[in-house]
Amino acid sequence: MAGVDGLIVGSGVIAIAFAWYLFTLVAAVQVNKTELTESSKINSCMNEKQTDSMEVIYEAIREGADAFLMAEYKICLIFVVCFAAVIFFLIGLGQDFEAAILTTIAFVTGAFTSMFSGWIGMKVAVFANARTTIEAAAGTNEEEKYMGAFNMAFRAGGVMGFSLCGLGLLVLWFLLQIYSGYLDLTDLSEYEVMMDCISGYGLGGSTIAMFGRVGGGIYTKAADVGADLVGKTELDIPEDDPRNAATIADNVGDNVGDVAGMSSDLFGSFAEATCAALVISASSSEFVTEGGWSALMFPLCISASGILVCLVSSFLAMNAVKSQPQVEKTLKGQLIVTTVLMVPVGAILAMSLLPAEFTLHGVAQASFTATPMKVVVCLSSGVIGGLVIGLITEYYTSFSYSPVVEVANSCKKGGAATNIIYGLALGYKSAIIPIMVLAVIIFLSFSLCDTYGVAVAALGMLSTLATCLSIDIYGPVCDNAGGIAEMTLPELPENVRECTDALDAAGNTTAAIGKGFAIGSAALVSLALYGALVVRLEITTGVNVLEPMTFSFLLIGAMLPYWFSAMTMKSVGEAAGAMVEEVRAQVKDETIVTAGSDRLTGLGKETMKPGSTVKAGVGILQGLVKPDYKQCIDISTKASLKEMVPPSALVIMAPLLAGTFFGVYAVFGILTGGLVSGVQLAISMSNTGGAWDNAKKYIEGKHSPDPDLQGKGTDYHKAAVVGDTVGDPLKDTSGPALNILMKLMAILSLVFAEYFKAINEGRGLLNIPVNV
Question: What residue intervals traverse the membrane (predicted)?
């Protein structure tokens, strides 16, 4: 017992310690004027006015992100309290109140851990954005610029990746220790009770992830779409131009959506995959007897060893980037190295911790015998499958490859219309190989180790989570760094923005890879939870999808991702519309601003003579008057908090209502349909949006050999901007949130399994007979 516990606790502590070490490296670059010394890097590359300007922008982004997250978490806190009461009441109906109390505690623990993970991610990303800009400006040559800025952004991602993995692992282990001490584990059936209650930890993480993904996604894309539509297409001003009132809200959105939302999302995946494996393994008293505590803790040991593998590989990226072409290669190399190392490490773990043969309960068969080698195949298929999905996602979303180049070139054929047609086709096509990879993983894992094999494959895919989070959060940090470089006045040298743009372009691809990774792992996690539900309900005949009740609800489940996506996309559209109106109103504002007013920019204070006046709207466009950034932040905040509730309620209520009124076979249909439909829609949406974004950057960065497709301001560029704007809610709101839809419905069904079973023996309140 000491061995596995030592590995788990040791890895968790090392992860948090390493995250702190990376944070100290990030914090070594000062931004705030009160902290500056003569040797501070900012003094070597910026004058006093630029330093003051950057600090104001940095603080505005920080305050906006803090305000949104605190407002969102207040709503989440109310939800956690109310839903905890629902869990206690409903589970108390199906089981005893002891199980209800333990599940409720696990739910609250998971929810707060998820919120803390999102908060850490957002704070670190905001903390590092201006520091990345400073590194890009301080370099005396291209090599120093790229190395400094890349290291800063990648280290910030590492702080999030390792702290989240370490925190999630340690909290779950401590919860298991408390429960194992409280319950009488000399009775082997208590292991099953303990793991059923622990599944509340995954439910807590997933519900908060839903609010984070949907709320953060609506916030960031309302600001982004609003800023692009007015700024680029109407006013013809650059992205992140300080004259655009929505630009601060846009940069805030990168942190609350792409960082806080992703952090909570992948924490939920880790918690749910682990819970699924624990529930399945604990359902077999033979497995508990044969393998003991070490075998039970095997799922946590996979994650623990993954932390150490990711830590070793992270050193290979430090100081490796010295020019633009090396950025994508280095980030891709991280994925490859962690995969190559994790396969043998996973094999050693399985051979060391699992019995030579062990018995488990499954779905395809009531009980089956497995071996460590079979588990190794399942684990390896998940690890390698995650890499393949990541590389395929890169191929379809990076302008280094032909699919995105084709989308960019289509702007010459028919403008925005053909750009959108090509982008949609790319998204649909990009789902083919990832779905085939998932099918192979599921077939292998299910054939060898039934649902336990699927859960282990999901954990294998998530074993490199620290690295995947590092490269995923790297992207929003670079995006913010570019925005700060653009907004700082007097303007920074053009090569600073060129450096941040190059890093951001790679960041867009890594963000797409991260989304593909999250969606692929979510599909496996959802299936593993589904299997755990069937095992928990002791259904030994499997699930017949042709049973009328199951098939009817399968169609309904397949419809839910579309209903959900319609709600989230419309929410973005409405919020963006309000943002567009606000930005237009500000540039048309005829309020008179006089010399000496606090509304004037630094340029306005320098150039306007005493007694002179200017209309506010004209002054904004001339760079003399500050836009009202706070008003745009308020619009995004209020819209996202209001609009995130209905889609989240849909996901939570669908399985609950189906199970309550129609029984467990209706729930099986909901889960099957939601999984099969959701995974494909999520992949196509995310990759379509990523391709449109990088097609735009392909033109802006003058990477095309065609002179017509080089630079900003042309009709072809505007066509690409339209595609990018349409793709924003696809890749950053609806698409990524669909993976939580799949997972949340499954974990919620697992947690409430006994409640469903208690209602007319699983037939629901309507007591409709089923043919099984």
Answer: 6-31, 75-93, 99-121, 153-176, 296-321, 333-353, 373-392, 420-446, 452-474, 517-539, 545-564, 648-671
